[in-house]
Each structure stands twice: as structure tokens, then as C-alpha cells.
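Table S2 (text version). Query chain:
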Amino acid sequence: MYRTTTRNPFLRELEDNRPAATLIAQQVRAALAEDLGEGDRTAVLIPAGQTSRVELITRQSAVLCGRAWFDEVFRQLDPGARIEWRALDGERVEPNRPLCLLTGSTRALLSGERTAMNYLQTLSGTASRARLYADAVAGLPVHLLDTRKTLPGLRVPQKYAVRCGGCHNHRMGLFDAILIKENHILAAGSIAAALKAAFEVGDGLPVEIEVESPEELKTALAAGATHLLLDNFELEQLRQAVILVAGKARLEASGGVTLDNVRDIAETGVDDISVGDLTKDITAVDISMRFVAA
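Corresponding C-alpha cell output:
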């Protein structure tokens, strides 16, 4: 029997702070309904009582993520299935490493394979991308943040994957923070008017405002801004903004962030960097699921 053990408290904390089991079950139920429809027409070729064993192998270096969604697929299709993991979410895995052993109804294994692997490969891809970014700014006091540029229906899982990769979450959606952007400012009439309205109706939510120039930054500061999103500032502008603000507001750099420039941006002294690339352009990790002898 394979057992997963670790002394890494970060990995254990991730396991203890996954999204709610009820949400995971709901998401998996919808994904299975999309794939199975009225039933798997190919799996019924296999005798109903047959059981099998499969093993998951990663074909490339990656950060593992998505175990709970993978498990839930087979829990819903075969409550008696047994899954024995060899790696935890957030753990780095190397090519050809076995990830888990799964035993259960052959029909369930065949019917659930694609849905389970879609979750595991996509979320591991997200976590692996986040780890590349986290490694790029290692040793610097900056938070790398995700955005709302997530795959439809996978926001909660992808934001969990970002944490597994060592980066951080921005707001979950439009409901848990106020982020005043260019069009909000235009609609409100001015930076000061937008901030005034946000402070009046914000109900204690965090308020952040986007600025596109040093002049707008000064205007926002004068209007009481405590969180500033510096949109597409050049590196020297970011350095000057850090000096000007001098800790009076939290500064977030955004726009055009890549693995090639993220460390340069971090070295300007900003507090946060938001990176759409963490969740937007993801390459699934190459993981294979193969039947093995019992």
C-alpha cells in the first residue's frame, strides 16, 4: 500500500485549506454530466462486475495539484474505489514518478478517466506555472497575485492551484473587494469621485484604484487611496512611485508581466505584482493513467 507522508508544513496547510468539499462535489458532478450525458456507450462493453487497477505517472517535471477533484470523480462513479496517493498537492514531482494507485470498477475507471485527468492536468499546469513565477522572485519581499483571468468554471480550483505553486490570490470575484479601474473612473467622473463613492458604499471591503500615470497616482493619494494598482508603469516610474508613496499606500504593479521581467519589477520595491499569465495561458501537465496488473 502506498502512503503519502511529508514533513513540509506548507504542503500540509494546503491540504487542510482546500476549497469546500461540497463545492468540489458540485463542480465534479457538473463535469461528469457534461461528459457522460445519458451514459458511457463504450464502457458498457466491459462486464459490470469487473475491477481493475490503474497507476498515474507524470511524464514531466511539475507541481502536483487537483487531487481532491480527481478523487471526487471516482468517488461519485464508484464509492468503493480506493485511491492511494504518493504525492501531495503543492509537491514538486519529477518525470516518470508514480503519483497514485487507483483500484475500482473497471467501468468507472474508464468513464471517469478523462474528467479526472482534465482536472489534474490543468490544475497541475496552473500550479507549475505559479511555481516558475514564485521561483523567479525568490528572496524578494513581494507578493505575486493571480487575477480574474481564469478558465470559465475553474476559478476556485485555479486559485487554489496558484497557492499550491507558491503565489497568492487577489480577489476571488467582483463581490469580495472593490477595484476601481479606468472605466469606473470615467463613469464616476473623476478619481476623487470614484474613491469617495467607494468609501461610502464599500461596507468595509478593501478598496483599490488603478492609476495610469504618476499624476493620477498623486491625485489618488490626495483623495485617500490606500491601495494603488500601477497599470503598465515603466520600471523607473515604479521606482519613483515607491519613493513617492513611502509606505503610505500599498502598491501593486500590473500589465505586461512575464517570467522575463517579473524579477526586475519586483526589485523596484512594489508590494504586489498581479500576473494574468498565472491562470490564463496554461499548458496541461503530461500525466498518463495506465492499467496495471493486479
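Notes on Table S2: Residues 1-6 have pLDDT under 50 and may be disordered. The first helix runs from residue 9 to 16.
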